[in-house]
Request: fold
Amino acid sequence: MTFLAAPIIYCDPVTSKAASPTVVPPASQAKAASVQPSAPPPPPPSSSISYLELTFGTVCGVCAGVFVKKGAKAVAFVMGGVFVLLQYLGSLSLVRVDWSRTATRFENLFYTKDASGARKPPNVGSLFRWIIDFLTADFQQRASFVAGFGLGLRIG
Reply:
């Protein structure tokens, strides 16, 4: 049963290294080598958002941004899990997935047609505009909401 026991770890003691001898430069080089003390580094930049002066729209935007980001992660996790499960069940010949039909249904659901009739796939910009239009319908503080939403997506 000794193979189940935790191994014993031995640590070496810490030893200090011998100080290296210092070389004193000649007097002519000592003046050239003397360095004047430098100024302290500048302070870090302050945040452009004062947490003491947040508006109602900004707070709503931050909360919505965090909610959307967490929700998108959860949806991506679930959809990825379903895809892996379908691929696994397909490899066992338990199910057969018609991926071309699935792709056609996706395109019919999410693609748009432009003025010339060509089909355009969705992009991040159109998704962002749709989400903002949906969330700010009948909401007066749209500008501060959008700023807070961006911050919520960042910190969420």
